[in-house]
């Protein structure tokens, strides 16, 4: 599978405790991305962050949070990422999605 050189990066910011249909939201999003044929998705767990409530979430022992920040990154063609975005609407009750144009230099094996 090849991603065009000019692609779109979607970053989805959610909390670790967010859920959809009884499973972690990050898992539901990654599985939906796979089901719809996107090139790939990566979940990154942050050691510290805050969102719209300004409540601090951290891994520090004295302030241990069970709702650490997560970022899901998806890179694919503009058309595929934009077609995926409406599928997030019923899944996300809160969170943030950012989009940016990216240049893909390499994907998979060549030759």
From TrEMBL:
The record's listing under Pfam families reads:
DUF190
InterPro entries attached to this UniProt entry: N-reg_PII-like_a/b, N-reg_PII/ATP_PRibTrfase_C, UPF0166
Q: Which family does it belong to?
A: Belongs to the UPF0166 family.
Which protein is depicted? Uncharacterized protein
**What is the organism field in this record?**
Thioalkalivibrio nitratireducens (strain DSM 14787 / UNIQEM 213 / ALEN2)
């Amino acid at each position: 599978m090849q991603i065009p050189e000019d692609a779109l990066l979607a970053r989805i910011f959610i909390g670790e405790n967010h859920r959809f249909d009884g499973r972690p939201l990050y898992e539901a999003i990654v599985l939906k991305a796979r089901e719809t044929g996107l090139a790939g998705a990566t979940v990154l767990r942050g050691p510290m962050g805050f969102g719209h409530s300004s409540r601090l979430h951290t891994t520090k022992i004295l302030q241990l949070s069970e709702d650490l920040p997560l970022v899901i990154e998806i890179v694919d063609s503009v058309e595929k990422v934009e077609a995926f975005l409406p599928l997030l609407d019923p899944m996300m009750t809160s969170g943030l999605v950012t989009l940016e144009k990216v240049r893909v230099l390499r994907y998979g094996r060549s030759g």
